[in-house]
Amino acid sequence: MLTKNLINTFYLLGIILLFACQSNEQQKESLEKANPPVTIANSEQFIIHSSNTQQDYKIYIHLPTSYTKSDTTYPVIYGLDADIGFGTASEMSTLLAFRKEMPEVILVGIAYGAYPSQEGNNRVRDYTPTANAEYPTSGEADKFLSFIRDELIPVIDSTYGTDTNDRTISGASLGGLFSLYVLFEHPGIFKRYKISSPSLWWDDGAIFEYEKRYAEANSDLPAYVFLSVGDVERTVESWKELVQILEERNYNNLKLSTMIFDNAPHLTACALAGIRGVKAVFMEE
Predict the structure, then answer these.
(1) Do 229 and 261 form a contact (C-beta atoms < 8 A)?
(2) Residue ranges of the chain with pLDDT lower than 70?
(3) How many angstroms separate the CA atoms of 173 and 191, rounded?
(4) What is the pLDDT of residue 35?
(5) Which of 5, 76, 86, 181 is 20 to 30 A (C-alpha) from 97?
């Protein structure tokens, strides 16, 4: 049987533990109030549902520093893979615009709310123009393009002060493949294309057939295009082949800028293209 003194001891210990827990919770609450989450200045987000892809997309918006002080309109950059690239792109565009190395722009990041390869991220489905048996959901780039053209762009243009004649698409890897698909299938949607390390290997180089079909019907390709790759990437030779084809076509009104990054594997090359690419497509004018 427990003695009275022992019972009192347990009682006191319980009170001490209770106050300790309350103290920890209070400390946590105070810490959260004192240290709010870090946010990106001049940025906001919203969710849009696409009837074309049956997907909810998280749309990240970064506005120029002069946005609230001006009634001007701004070029718009539509960035793919925004789950991993929006933060870097927004800070980079702000810095370059501050140094007058590019114009102020509105940045629109298209995200899934999940990193690549995580559940909910459907970049393989959305960014690929042809189906590949190894990737069961692939080949729906046409639906994703319809989402951008018919659903997203109208919302952006009606909500923000955009220059509707100056849109850029920015894509890397599979996003670069999708950007090439847009260039050869519907070049009038975007004026500028920042394409880094495109997945030219997809479906045995199917994107080359898109370019060939375009060339058979058109001699004009009005676009500012930046194409880059890392010198140790597996696609470097096919990248050189694509560049040679574009140069030999001698398309009217195509302003092509290319770059090979030294000692740069895939992800490094994509990162390096961030600054060089966006400067290139705006400096070509």
Answers:
(1) yes
(2) 1-33, 284-285
(3) 20
(4) 78
(5) 181
pLDDT at 38: 85
Which residues are CB-neighbours of 2 under 8 A, at least 6 positions away?
10
**What amino acid is encoded at 72 in this protein?**
T
Residue pair 61/44 in contact by the 8 Å Cβ criterion: yes
Residues belonging to the chain: 285
The rounded mean pLDDT for the chain is 92
d(CA 3, CA 244): 92
Model-level pTM?
A: 0.88
**Measured between alpha carbons, how far apart are the two ends of the chain, in Å?**
91
Distance, in Å, from the CA atom of 192 to the CA atom of 79, rounded to the nearest integer, reads: 12
**Which position has the token pair 């990737």?**
135
Q: Where along the chain do its domains lie? A: 1-36, 43-283
CA–CA separation, 281 and 193 (whole Å): 7
Structure tokens at 33: 């109030």
1 CB-contact burial (10 Å; exposed 0-12 / middle 13-18 / buried 19+): exposed
Do residues 60 and 70 make contact, with C-beta atoms less than 8 angstroms apart? no
Which is it for strands 55-62 and 43-50: parallel, antiparallel or unpaired? antiparallel
Residues 53-97 have pLDDT tens digits of: 999 999 999 999 999 998 899 999 999 999 999 999 999 999 999
- Which residues is 220 bridged to in the sheet? 252
- DSSP character for 202? G
CA distances from 193 to 12, 50, 170, 187 (A): 70, 23, 6, 10
